[in-house]
Amino acid sequence: MYCPICGTQNSEETTHCTKCGGLLNPPPISVPAPQVSSSIRWAGYSIVALVVVGILSSIVLAALSNTSGSASSSSELPAPEIVWTTYNSADEGFSIDFPSLPATDVMEDYAGSLPFRIKMWFSYEDNDNVFSVYKYEFSQPVDVSSPETELSEYVQSYARDGKLLRSTPIQHGIYPAVDFLIQYDDGFFKGRAVLVEEEIYNLQLSYPEEFYNDENYSRFINSFEVH
Prior knowledge:
- This protein is of the alpha+beta class.
- The chain has a single domain (about 40-225), classed as Mog1/PsbP, alpha/beta/alpha sandwich (Protein Transport Mog1p, Chain A, 3-Layer(aba) Sandwich), CATH 3.40.1000.
- It contains four helices and ten strands.
- The strands form two sheets. A seven-stranded antiparallel β-sheet has the order 3-4-5-9-8-7-6, with helices on both faces.
- Helix 1 packs parallel to helix 3.
- The longest helix has 16 residues, at about 45-60.
């Protein structure tokens, strides 16, 4: 079986690509009617979240395939020389600092059944660090009466294909948010999900353990502003 993302040949019994981590042969998706309750909505879309995370994971884990991570995320190196660039998107209503000008992409109507559109921005470092922003625009009204619950269930769904090591509710300025850390076979996803009205911004650093730098991560996360 060949990976639809990177083209690597895998054995028939493999569910995820051994090179990039992409989901192989996704199962048929059946999406229930939209619900007002956020908890019911996220539970109903759990299988969709699995497919989405498989695709997003394959993009960033492909950059980590030449390095191997361990079970800890505490290692830290001195900050490499980075010339930070402030990316200011008037159309999308946010700004954030990237280590280089980001590439962009959009995922919309995957398999004809996504309940949201995802806009993506990626910036790569030479040490296999990937700084990314995912903006979720939902096709149905989102119940934001309990933002902590909404964000917690989003993070749990997003981490379904990995191991969720941490999920901590915080505030990002005036906006509710959750800090998270997810472990995968080849590295970690560390980030912050921010709920802005009815949209979720996922700010994320993907890295192998040996190339994590907290100064760069903090610069990236704390520079995010909504206009």
